[in-house]
Amino acid sequence: MFDVIIAGCGPAGAMLAAELRLHDVRVLVLEKETEPVSAARIVGLHIRSIELMAMRGLLERILERGRQRPAGAYFAAIDKPAPENLDTAYAYLLGIPQPVIVDLLEAHAIERGAQVRHGAAVTGFEPDDDGVTVELAGGERLRSRYFVGCDGAHSTVRKLLGVGFPGEPARTETLMGEMGLAAPPAEITDRRVHLRPAGAGVYRVVVPAAGVSDRAEPPTLDDFRQRLRAIAGTDFGVHSPRWLSRFGDATRLADRYRVGRVLLAGDAAHIHPPLGGQGLNLGVQDAVNLGWKLAAEVRGWAPGTLLDTYHTERHPVAADVLDNTRAQTALGSPEPGARAARELLAELMDFDEVNRYLTEKISGIGIRYDFGPGPDLLGRRLPDVEVERGRLYDLLHRGRGLLLDRTGRLTAGGWSDRVDHLADRTAVLDVPGLLLRPDGHVAWIGDDQQDLEDHLARWFGKPS
């Protein structure tokens, strides 16, 4: 019997498996595909996801396989530089092929001790009071205490669970890829066509497709040529594609992320157009939010409502992402009203406050969970600040909580098996002490030991 079975070994499933293994949870990941996806689409890791990779000691190996890009021009592809002095040590976007990031995260999970089975399609499951029986194609039945669906937009787990997936179906389809241009344009007059430099003579090309399909097959370079000629009057001599893909504008959000012992994460819980490049990041961040909470439940120290906070925290974040992609979609319309709104927003983004707000929204560093009244830092993630022992994130590799104490008087006491303690008067912070959850969000700020213990119990259960 496993502690947790995960359906789907994409970015969310692989990251969740690794997070669970940090706490010695017995994990099996079931991936229906036998081979990696063939489309080498480039995805972007945003600042918050890069921070999470640094928190788990993964960043160096990921940096070796990606390309760093400036952190600006996130929102609706409006070309503005990144705001100065973003509150992060990682103020860049990391472009990396999606199969590469999946392979890296899967290898990381396996190194941590997760089991991964390819060619294992889930066809059914039966929850009961003690666990979940998972059935595979071919009739094999497996048993686990919890079951998580990370099996994508067409999630079998979500459908069998009967969770609603309201939103809008796909109404348009778009081609997107990176390729060379023999005749780069001086100006694009049709707002439906987007050509942006992507380095070394390569351009990111976005153009409407002819219609809506099931997108079962990747597009060809000829598809791009035909659509560019039809809309722009020329194909710009496109050649030598790096990757080609198509996407629709379906936008949906699961009603619930948890039903008893079955949970949803990643695209199984939310889908939206890739505007702003937020999808993969949203799924990885789901996994890091869920991992330590589900592990706490398995290990027996979770407070009664801890696992439910996965939905209450992440569902609003996904709703916000869906809304900002709806807004970006509207701003990309060639209609006069949308064009006027886009021009107005471009003017407003010349104000640092507006540009900063939108950049923090898309990059994930503006997220603040509702932990109740308190300073603005409460509920936010803490950047990778300097501490006496180096960098803060180097202390979070094990996925434990962290008490950062600048007073020298605080203690984690009976929670020391779950929470590390760093007494450091030199830490670059303007608070006396704070408690970090394993996902790097600030759960408490202050200098009172009794108040600290109340919050330790809230997030980390009863003391040993």
From TrEMBL:
Molecular function as annotated in GO: FAD binding; oxidoreductase activity, acting on paired donors, with incorporation or reduction of molecular oxygen, NAD(P)H as one donor, and incorporation of one atom of oxygen
Record keywords, A-Z: FAD, Flavoprotein
Domain called FAD-binding: residue spans: 2-325
SUPFAM superfamilies associated with the record: FAD/NAD(P)-binding domain
Cofactor requirements of the protein: FAD
Keyword check for Flavoprotein: yes
Top-level taxon in the UniProt lineage: Bacteria
UniProt xrefs under PANTHER family: BINDING MONOOXYGENASE, PUTATIVE (JCVI)-RELATED, TRK SYSTEM POTASSIUM UPTAKE PROTEIN
The protein, known as: FAD-dependent oxidoreductase
